[in-house]
Amino acid sequence: MKITPLQPEHFLPVIELGNLVHGDNYLDETGIEQMYQKGCKNGINASFVALGENGELLGFRTTYSAGQWPIDKWSSPTLWPVDENDMAYFKCIAIAPNAQGQGIGPQLLSHAVAALKQQGAKAGVSHLWKQSPGNGAVKYFTKAGGKLIKVHDDKWLDDCIYHGYVCTICGTQCHCQAAEMVLEF
Ligand SMILES: CC(C)(COP(=O)(O)OP(=O)(O)OC[C@H]1O[C@@H](n2cnc3c(N)ncnc32)[C@H](O)[C@@H]1OP(=O)(O)O)[C@@H](O)C(=O)NCCC(=O)NCCS
C-alpha cells in the first residue's frame, strides 16, 4: 500500500468510492475538484489517496487548508482551542469496505496532519459520521487524539433535499448525526 497526494487522475475512482461508502450523489466531479483546490496551500497538498499494489484505490482523505474553507452553522469556533484562522478542516474520508479496520484511515490522517503543519495550521476540525459502520469514524478520530466539541443532528439532510444525496443508512431523508471534533497538532 502506498499513500500519495490526491491528483486529478484519482478523481473518478475517488468519486466512485465516496458514493459507494457514503451514498449516491455524495461526490461529483465539481465537488472533488473544489475539495482538491481547497487543500492546496503554499505549494503543499493536504489531501491524500491510499493505493493498493496494482494501483487500485483503497481509500482517500480530502482536507481543507486553514483560511480556505467557510465556517458555517455546523461549526463552533467559540468552543475551539485555536483561532479560526489556524483551523484546517478534515472534509471527507472513505476506505474501501474490504480495507476498513486495517489502519489505513489513521495513516491517511497522519499524512494530512503533516502537510497541514507544513502549511502552518495548528489544528483540524471535522464532522464525524456518528452512524458509520462499527462506529469506525468516531473511533478512528478519537484514537488519533480528536476531542468532541458538539453533536449536530441532521447534518446531511440538506444534501438529500437539495443535492440528491442518498444516505447508505437512511436513504433520501438522512437523520445521521455529526460529531464535531477537533484534533490539535
Ligand atoms: C471510518 C474510517 C475512515 C476509519 O478508517 P479505518 O482504516 O477503517 O480505521 P481503523 O482501521 O483504525 O479502524 C478504526 C476502528 O473502527 C472499526 N471499524 C472500521 N470499519 C469498520 C466496519 N466497517 N465495521 C466494524 N468496525 C469497523 C475498526 O475495527 C477499529 O475499531 P477498534 O478501534 O475497536 O479496533 C473507515 O472505516 C471508513 O471509511 N468507514 C466508512 C466511511 C466513514 O465512516 N467515513 C468517515 C466519515 S466521517
Summarize the model shown.
With 185 residues, the protein is an alpha+beta fold.
Which characteristics define this entry?
185 residues; alpha+beta; Aminopeptidase; seven-stranded mixed beta sheet; two-stranded antiparallel ribbon; globular; binds coenzyme A
List of distinct ligands in this structure: coenzyme A
- Assign the CATH superfamily: Gcn5-related N-acetyltransferase (GNAT)
- Per DSSP E runs of 2 or more residues, the count of β-strands stands at 11
The helix-and-strand class reads alpha+beta
| Number of continuous helical runs | 5
CATH class: Alpha Beta
Give the percentage of residues in beta strands.
Answer: 25-35%
Q: Can you summarize the main beta sheet?
A: 7 strands, mixed
Query: How many domains, as an integer?
Result: 1
Helical residues, percent: 25-40%
**Coarse morphology:** globular
Report strand order across the widest sheet.
1-5-6-7-8-11-9
Q: Architecture, CATH level 2?
A: 3-Layer(aba) Sandwich
Radius of gyration: 15 Å
CATH fold field value = Aminopeptidase
Overall pLDDT metric: 97
